[in-house]
Design a protein that fits this description.
The protein is an all-alpha fold. About 80% of the residues lie in helices and about 0% in strands.
Length: about 230
């Protein structure tokens, strides 16, 4: 059976559900990173605070606190990079033993399917979790670049290079955070993609819930209200 014939095994609802989760994954990222200035996202608000952080860092004689904060950010990305690497290995192991899922499906009274169908469904999860891994690895490296730029900022605040390099450090820091957030979103959607093992309607429901959670946290959360509070 060739690839075209194999794809006919999936219903139109299956293909629509997969298309929906991929479109939502891309769309929600674009919306969060390019929200209108009249209604910014939490990520955009934090980007301005990251710039402010680097400007104030340049004026401090002792920068141990700044180094500790950045080290905490790097540890966070390292943790998620390690976790997604383990998750990638776990999904690959499941794909290699898809026949075990058939027994689980029988126990859960799910509709029977061939090994190949389970493998294709797990490939969607593998794609998203691998994407998350790559984002976290790149974010960790960018935070390392930011650390070097912070160390290169002259101790004299009136040095003409001080503001220039601190501004570069701020932009690299923002880029690292953007990649980190993209990795987190990929994890959210990879968890939602597991619902496809149950069926297309479960995947559609999980995708809608995931989008709702992300929208609430970025545009309607308490943390956003605090960031916007000017009192």
């Amino acid at each position: 059976m060739d690839w075209i014939n194999r794809l006919t095994v999936f219903s139109n609802w299956d293909l629509s559900a997969v298309g929906l989760i991929l479109v939502c994954y891309v769309f929600i990222g674009l919306l969060i990173e390019n929200a209108p200035s009249s209604h910014p996202s939490v990520s955009q608000l934090m980007a301005e605070h990251r710039r402010s952080w680097m400007r104030h860092m340049a004026a401090r004689d002792v920068r141990i606190f700044d180094a500790q904060v950045l080290n905490g950010l790097r540890q966070g990305t390292a943790f998620f990079a390690s976790a997604t690497m383990l998750a990638t290995g776990g999904v690959l192991a499941l794909i290699g033993n898809a026949d075990k899922l058939i027994d689980v499906a029988d126990d859960l009274s799910l509709s029977p399917a061939s090994d190949w169908v389970w493998e294709m469904k797990l490939l969607l999860t593998l794609f998203l979790i691998t994407n998350a891994l790559l984002k976290f690895v790149w974010s960790h490296r960018l935070f390392g670049y930011c650390a070097i730029l912070m160390a290169a900022v002259p101790n004299a605040p009136d040095d003409p290079q001080s503001l220039l390099i601190s501004r570069k450090a701020g932009e690299v820091n923002i880029t690292a955070a953007r990649s980190y957030n993209r990795g987190l979103r990929a994890i959210y959607f990879s968890i939602a993609s597991i619902a496809w093992l149950v069926g297309p309607w479960a995947l559609i429901a999980a995708t809608i819930i995931t989008v709702g959670v992300l929208l609430r946290r970025e545009f309607m959360s308490k943390s956003r209200a605090v960031l916007l509070d000017k009192d």
